[in-house]
Each structure stands twice: as C-alpha cells, then as structure tokens.
Design a protein that fits this description.
Number of helices: 12
CATH superfamily of the largest domain: Ammonium transporter AmtB like domains
CATH class of the largest domain: Mainly Alpha
Structural class: mainly alpha
Distance between the termini: 35 Å
Radius of gyration: 22 Å
CATH architecture of the largest domain: Orthogonal Bundle
Helix content: 55-70%
Strand content: under 5%
Shape: globular
C-alpha cells in the first residue's frame, strides 16, 4: 500500500539521504560545470574552476535542505532546483571574477535546412537528449543513460523518450534555424525529464501518462521563453524549464485527481501501478464486506 507523505521533523529526512537524492544535485553540479564551462567560457578547466565546482556541490545539499522544507509543505519535490541555483551562482561568480575570454571570431558560412522536421539529425537529437541531462553530447552516453533507465523501468524509458521526442519536435516550432541545438538534444532533455517526473511521482494511469506528455510539451514553451533571457547573459537555461513546468503540472494533478494517484514512496512506475491496483482491490473488498454485514444482520 502506498504510504502517506510525512513532513520531516528537522533537516533532511533519512529516506531522502538513503535514496541518494542529496547527492544527486551534487553529482549534477560535478558533471555539468566541467562539461559546460569550456563551452560558455571558451577556455579549458583550471584549478580555481574545480574549487568553484566543489563548493557549489557542497552548497547544493544545503539548498536542498532549505527548499525541501518549503516544498514539503505542499508535498512537492525540489527536483533539480538546488543544482540550478548553485550552478548559476557559480557561473555568474566566475564571470564576474574574469574567467571568461572572448571566443575567436571565425567567419564561416553555413547553409541550414529550412524545414528539418523529419531530418535524420533531428531524430538523433531525441536520443542525444538523454545525455544532455548531464551536459554531454554523446550517442554512447545517451545510450547508456537509456539502458540504465530501462533496467530500472521499461515504462519510464518509454515515457522519457516520448517526452524528449515531443520536446524536440515542438522546438522546431518555437525556435528558428539553425537547428543545431535541436539536433544536439539541447531542446529535448527538459522534455525528457518532465515526462519522467510525472510518470515517476504519479501512478501511471492513462490519464497521468497523457499529462506527462503534455508536461513535456509545455516545458518546451517555457524553455523557449527563457532562452533569450539567459542568452543575453550568456548562460544556459539548464533544467529550469523542467522544474517550473513539472511543479505546476504535479500540483495540478494532485489538485484535480484522486490523492491516491500521488506516489509518496517512489520506487519505479511498474511497482506503483501494482500497489495502486492492490489498493483499489482491497477497497472494493472492504466496501463489499461493509454492504454484506448489514444484510446478514437483518436475516
């Protein structure tokens, strides 16, 4: 039976620590900063950058503890908000400290397809979205991520890839050529996470699975609206679109649907569905007994 969500008495609950969620944001900081620093600062990693990364990783645990207390009152997860906050702080601090150098101005002429909707590279971008969650553009990395997710849950694999596909092709509508970022999976990873979040934290019924796909679609519009803002300061949007959209849709699902559809002790979607079916079966048996006892007493 699914457990009811309990508020922690103080600090971070042991269950969150044991599940590795405190380390998760720190791992993201430790992988994304080295991956994106050379791209946005146009120079190789240096010793001070590693110092920023270590301090940010530690600070992400503190931020998780604070945000967890706030969001727990509404039974909502913090997702990757701690990672986003500390990574933005690290990038801005390093830029203010003068670590950035101007990129080389190489005049090159490229011809980009006007309508790459069914381009093979765009389909490749749906796969690369999995690796871009970690800031890595690699087919091998993306394949390993998908295999790892499949080992945990085939259903979650199907929905995360569907979310990445929806986000990637939606990006063709809300962005403009060149579509190199779409083909690199940059526009798909937030959809990948958004569809997975609803599938993971809600019992996977047809209604919630549809909501997961819609969440990936809406996430891409948030990504589109935030991209010019962060581009003006030469920073990536990271997973902010996923966090904002998923918090909205998870709250929506909890407010308009049965409370029992919200998973309080997440493990994997297939198990959530089995436990939910067992709960419904037990409730049905209880109701049958409750209606049978008065009839027997009247005999």
């Amino acid at each position: 039976m699914l457990n009811i969500i309990q508020n922690p008495v103080m600090g971070i609950p042991n269950s969150i620590i044991e599940a590795g969620l405190t380390n998760f944001n720190a791992v993201l900081v430790g992988t994304v900063i080295p991956a994106l620093y050379p791209v946005f600062f146009h120079q190789p990693l240096s010793l001070p950058v590693w110092g920023y990364m270590i301090v940010s990783s530690v600070f992400s645990v503190c931020v998780l503890g604070g945000l967890g207390r706030i969001l727990d009152a509404h039974t909502l997860p913090a997702f990757t908000l701690p990672f986003n906050l500390v990574t933005f702080m690290a990038f801005v601090s390093m830029r203010e400290a003068g670590y950035e150098i101007e990129p080389l101005n190489v005049n090159q002429t490229h011809e980009y397809p006007v309508d790459p909707t069914w381009n093979q590279q765009v389909w490749l971008g749906t796969l690369l979205s999995a690796g871009q969650v970690w800031g890595v553009e690699s087919v091998w990395c993306s394949t390993l991520v998908m295999v790892a997710v499949f080992i945990s849950s085939p259903l979650l694999t199907l929905l995360t890839y569907t979310g990445a596909t929806v986000a990637t092709f939606t990006a063709l509508v809300v962005s403009s050529a060149p579509y190199t970022l779409v083909e690199a999976g940059v526009w798909g990873y937030n959809g990948f996470l958004s569809a997975g979040a609803i599938t993971f934290f809600m019992v996977p019924t047809p209604r919630t699975l549809l909501l997961a796909v819609i969440n990936a679609f809406f996430t891409t519009f948030i990504h589109s609206s935030l991209s010019p803002i962060f581009a003006s300061v030469q920073l990536p949007v990271l997973t902010i679109p996923f966090c904002l959209s998923s918090l909205i849709f998870l709250s929506l699902a909890m407010s308009v649907g049965p409370a029992s559809l919200r998973v309080s002790s997440p493990s994997f979607p297939e198990r959530h569905l089995v436990l939910y079916a067992q709960k419904l079966s037990n409730e049905k048996k209880t109701q049958e007994i409750a209606t049978t006892v008065p009839e027997i007493s009247r005999l």
